Amino acid sequence: MTHSHARLRTLCVALCLGLASQAAAAADPVLVIHGGAGLERKDVTPQDEAAIRAALTLALEKGHAALAAGKPALDAVTAAITVLEDDPLFNAGKGAVFTHDGKNELDASIMDGATLRAGAVANVHHVKNPILLARAVMEHSPHVMLVGDGAEVFAKEQGIELVDPGYFRTERRWKQLQEALKEDAAGGQAMRDPEATTKHFGTVGAVALDAQGHLAAGTSTGGMTDKRYGRVGDSPIIGAGTYANGQCAVSGTGWGEFYIRVAAAHEICARMAYLHETPAQAGEAVIIKQIPALGGDGGAIILASDGSAALPFNTEGMARGWIGSDGVPHIALYSGDPLPLPDAAKAP
What we know:
Elements: H1 3-25, E1 30-37, H2 46-68, H3 73-85, E2 106-112, E3 117-124, H4 130-140, E4 145-147, H5 148-158, H6 171-187, H7 194-197, E5 204-209, E6 215-221, E7 242-244, E8 248-254, H8 256-261, H9 264-274, H10 279-294, E9 298-304, E10 309-310, E11 317-323, E12 329-334
Parallel strand pairs: 3-4
Antiparallel strand pairs: 1-5, 1-11, 2-3, 2-6, 5-6, 7-8, 8-9, 9-10, 11-12
Helix pairs in contact: 2-3, 3-4, 4-5, 9-10
């Protein structure tokens, strides 16, 4: 190769990288959220439905404000999930379900697709917003996951807000535990679908694409009603309930044991990367086919680096929504509800 050819090649490579950088910088920001699969019309009053929609709208608006200000996808994910953790309607933060022993054990995780950094916490009892602690683990520790008392010591060191366990108590969740305990007494505890036992409100999550073309994902949950033995589901497990890389971001909601067994969030992203499937195709394969075939159920939100998205679920409903660069929230609750997606595909 001559010197002039080498210079030309170098110039072409630089030009291509520059164009790619410009394309990434020109990305239209998108935020997608969920408030849990397992929504059933018969259990939702008109007042509850209005409250769910209002909470999803606020979460979308808070996350969109971060994106509109040019902040990273991580900030949008954190902002949206914090809103949902603070709302007692959802099984995360304030509205967390109770364990068999009448306690609240909270889990959360977050992942930055651009760097593959991740943070997670499990079985914390005093952390007001577990998603903030998960992010602190990612950004201010050499670890990915902290659990229990150790996680709370770290939270105190990092200035993360801690609250009395009574903060998490809601009468609705307490009644759900009492019903579950009666079932235990009648026939012994069986493994329960977490979204079935928490009825129509569950795990929360968010995925976002920022103006730089970077993706992020996060998930937060109170786990399973009447759970024992320090059980941990998929939500705080990177690759199971949460995953993000340069091409794909996923947050799941459903029966965690099955999401762990199939590494659901990573499996979706892997199908998109290696089989060149769209978010809708990968979501169909994992959420609609693979997990139910094993006996599980639930849903997920999936966002690709091109801004296309899918929100598959195999239950009657899943509280869900998205917002794009125009700042208009799009929300749906049940299967069949109209929800035009960023790529104009139809939600289930």
